[in-house]
UniProtKB/TrEMBL annotation:
Source superkingdom: Bacteria
Cofactor(s) demanded: FAD
Protein name: Pimeloyl-CoA dehydrogenase small subunit
Acyl-CoA oxidase/dehydrogenase middle domain boundaries: 118-204
Domain Acyl-CoA dehydrogenase/oxidase C-terminal: start-end pairs: 223-374
Family named by the database record: Belongs to the acyl-CoA dehydrogenase family.
Keywords: FAD, Flavoprotein, Oxidoreductase
Signal peptide span: none
An example Gene Ontology molecular-function term: flavin adenine dinucleotide binding
Pfam families found in the cross-reference section: Acyl-CoA_dh_1, Acyl-CoA_dh_M, Acyl-CoA_dh_N
InterPro entries in the cross-refs: Acyl-CoA_Oxase/DH_mid-dom, Acyl-CoA_Oxase/DH_mid-dom_sf, AcylCo_DH-like_C, AcylCo_DH/oxidase_C, AcylCoA_DH/ox_N, AcylCoA_DH/ox_N_sf, AcylCoA_DH/oxidase_NM_dom_sf
Classification via PANTHER family: ACYL-COA DEHYDROGENASE (PTHR43884), ACYL-COA DEHYDROGENASE FADE28 (PTHR43884:SF20)
Amino acid sequence: MDFNFKEEQLQLADALKRWIARDYTFEARRAIVGSPAGVSEAAWATLAELGLTALPLPEAQGGFDGDAVDMFVVMQELGRGLVVEPYFATMFGAEFLRRGRAHEALLERVAAGDLKLACALGERQSRHDLRDIAMRATPDGAGWRLNGEKKVVLHGAQAGLLIVSARTAGAQRDEDGITLFAVPADAAGVVMRDVRMLDGQRAADVLLRDVTVGADAVIGTVDEGWTILEAAADHGAGLLCAEALGAMDALFGATLDYLKTRQQFGVPIGKFQALQHRMADMYVHLEQARSMALLAAVRLAAEQKAAGHQAEDACTGIVAERRRAVAAAKYRVGQAARFVGQQAIQLHGGMGVTDELPASHYFKRLSTIELTLGDCDHHLARFIAQPGFYDDEEAA
């Protein structure tokens, strides 16, 4: 399989890399993270000017019809720069609207950079199971009334629109009976508690008390939101894998530089064979994770393309490949992130955990990514549960 990027993708990555090096330095990022807002409107405007907010959106809504491989390139650079703006949250939310195919005006605002999104999916009891939904949506005249609470909504307080999953039928953990809603963040009854997370990103606990929305707020079909929810979650996991690779790349490079400059007994510690072996192990983990993340991006791009040209029942095999590839990638990237991060901190010594050094910030971000949209254990179990994993299933 050809994993070489196109010239246009490399140019976009280079433009983003140059902006980060010039205007989004480590010290500039620390200042943004420490600010009351926790994000920079100037940085967000630059991302929009570079066309990143429009990249994955349909051309009809002002986008560039970019696929998962295009987004892989972008997310990798954002990971290297530890960018804290709500780009991932917004592009994750945009995938719901794109698949719902009924909110063109909202997608146009997202493409222009005028609207930020957040996905309110997880709940206190659900952990990584996005089917476990206690929030209820009940009919209210021509619209709906939502009641419940969502936990750790990435950039919820910075968003203008929330993508909310609610139960409209069935038992709490059923796939059937889930409905997705586009809820204005300033709607009456929406209460948020904004906090700064371990990695510097912002998140909010969101309480919805008798929040009313119209029938046009439904994304997709009533009671049948699981298909969109699962596909969008896989898309989001693919984006996170790419971001983690960028962070691991940068952390590996910083650790290598540190071993070349830090001296003990009159020589750089990088000359000690034991430390060289540890760096070699880190490199192996990094490259294996890169291969799996790229494969997931290719599978996601193929599924996106097929969904736009084929009937749903004709995409069954492609969807199955997407599930397997994303689960495997999230598991392998999560393993690599943990190993590379821990080794980098140890090789930096006491300096590795200080706020003044980028190493600790990369490790915190990698740790958070591993827990977002399913940790290693969750995706390993998901991969094993896919049809055909066991020999007897294949034989049957």
